[in-house]
Specification:
Shape: globular
Largest sheet: 2 strands, antiparallel
Order of helices and strands: HHEHHHHHHHHHHEH
Structural class: mainly alpha
Distance between the termini: 49 Å
């Protein structure tokens, strides 16, 4: 293991796999807690309801189910980088693997610091004794590592061949790293660096699509407007639960997905009216 380029491809796939849970949970901890959406009567109890009412405590499984996979990604990234250093992989491939991995580590630590504040910080592979004896770092120390990782990850596309670029959908990219970095600066209220970073993204990332329907075309999942997207297999049981939970309960057949010929939607989460009301009736984004 951890010898050939194919070995590291597989290891990196494992780093991407473990961000799937937190990517969904960001909606619960972000939009529900932030009052962009409310939890309806169709979800009378459980994690969503607790977050909506801000009564989550240390016994709530939603906290551990968010904490653990983020640290799983961090540990996998640190393992990959540690094994990469002594491998016989080509130097350019090493730089690409490390840049992608550091994007995922930055993403995971940014998730953690926004929910928990300062957390234990591991910037290299640690043994079990070190893991348990490491105290919490400050939020600023965590964010400093996030920014450092993203500044390295900004170079991802420069390490890719034209063939690599053609198959890079669903992977971290230079645009994704710069965009996440801009978001980190916004979180720090460093508006000068945020403006500079995000203006560069707007200038270099391509034109907007002509038709909104193309944005969510399952046959063309990677396009100019997609910043970073998890590349799910198109089989039953895979995909984001966000869609089903935000479609009104038992919506008419064909109104959400043309190929679903039955009523659809759980209606667990509904957008608050003060947000929904901002859309013009003719605006397809509504």
């Amino acid at each position: 293991l951890y010898n050939s380029k194919e070995d590291f491809d597989a290891a990196l796939a494992g780093c991407y796999q473990s961000i799937m849970g937190p990517a969904t949970d960001n909606v619960w901890f972000g939009d529900i807690a932030g009052d962009n959406v409310y939890v309806t009567r169709y979800q009378p109890s459980g994690t969503m309801r607790d977050i909506d009412q801000l009564v989550v405590d240390a016994q709530d499984g939603s906290l551990s189910s968010y904490w653990s996979p983020n640290y799983t990604t961090i540990e996998r990234v640190n393992m990959l980088i540690d094994r990469l250093e002594g491998s016989a992989v080509d130097d350019n491939d090493k730089r690409l693997f490390e840049a992608e991995a550091k994007f995922l580590r930055a993403y995971s630590y940014f998730n953690l610091v926004r929910i928990f504040g300062g957390v234990p910080l591991y910037d290299k592979l640690a043994d079990i004794g070190t893991i348990y004896s490491t105290p919490r770092s400050t939020a600023d120390e965590v964010l400093n590592l996030v920014i450092s990782d993203l500044n390295e990850a900004k170079n991802i596309d420069s390490y890719r061949s034209s063939e690599d670029m053609a198959s890079a959908g669903g992977k971290a990219s230079t645009v994704a790293a710069k965009t996440l970095l801009g978001k980190v600066y916004l979180w720090k209220k460093d508006f000068t660096n945020a403006e500079t970073t995000l203006a560069d993204v707007v200038a270099t990332s391509g034109k907007l699509l002509e038709d909104l329907s193309v944005l969510y075309d399952p046959d063309s999942p990677f396009n100019n407007e997609i910043i970073f997207s998890i590349n799910y297999d198109r089989v039953n049981g895979f995909g984001s639960p966000f869609v089903g939970t935000t479609v009104p309960y038992q919506h008419p057949a064909g109104s959400v997905y043309p190929n679903i010929n039955e009523k659809y939607g759980s209606g667990y989460l509904m957008v608050e009216q003060f947000i929904a009301g901002k859309f013009d009736p003719q605006d397809l984004r509504a």
